[in-house]
Amino acid sequence: MRDDLPEIMVGGAVLAAALGFMVYAGQAAGIGKSSNSYALKASFRSMEGIDVGTDLRLAGVNIGKVTDLTLNAETYRADTVVSVARGIEIPDDSALVVSSEGLLGGNYMEIVPGGSPFYFSDGDVISDTQGAISLISLLMKFVSGQGSN
Fold first, then answer.
1. Do 20 and 39 form a contact (C-beta atoms < 8 A)?
2. Which segments of 5-93 are extended strands (E)?
3. In whole angstroms, how large is the CA radius of gyration of the chain?
4. Quick one: which of 48, 60, 82, 99 has the fewest CB in 10 Å?
5. Is residue 95 within 8 Å of residue 129, measured between CB atoms?
6. In whole angstroms, what is the distance from residue 17 CA to residue 4 CA?
7. What is the DSSP code (8-state) at residue 146?
8. With bands split at pLDDT 50, 70 and 90, how would you rate the model's confidence at 80?
């Protein structure tokens, strides 16, 4: 029995490490955790530069993330779902816009708040959207002289 003690100790340490890893993985995946956010849906003509995990901002402050992005085969639009932190009420006449951090920066989602006294709730659809503006196409219009109309 004395000779088995080191093997038992090593086995216990391996089991403890495996259990710790499983708990960490469960927390990272959000398993068993109550949701601290609510979902809003929207449809865009172009979601260029936006991926799942892209920041959602209001007044420059990160309030959520893009959680789903799919192509609607019927409308050929990009359907997206964003999660907004609980406790932040968004007026139901607000707009969801794809914004750029600058000429060389990435894109992010921005909520432009409206003035309605009513607010979006979980699962509501934001109908006022503005997709990504292609810098290349704007430059081509400027160079070709089509932007002066």
1. no
2. 37-44, 55-58, 61-72, 77-85
3. 23
4. 60
5. yes
6. 20
7. G
8. very high
**What is the CB-side half-sphere exposure of residue 114 using CA atoms within 13 A?**
17
CB contact set of 35 (below 8 Å; sequence gap of 6+): 86
Contact 84, 38 (CB under 8 A): yes
Q: Check residues 27 and 143 and name the one with the higher pLDDT.
A: 143
Location of structure tokens 């708040």: 113
- Work out the end-to-end distance of the chain between its first and last CA atoms, rounded to an integer number of angstroms: 91
Q: What is the pLDDT of residues 82-115, one digit of tens each?
A: 999 998 999 999 999 988 877 667 888 999 998 9
Contacts of 84 (CB under 8 A, 6+ apart): 37, 38, 39, 40, 56, 63, 64, 90, 111, 120
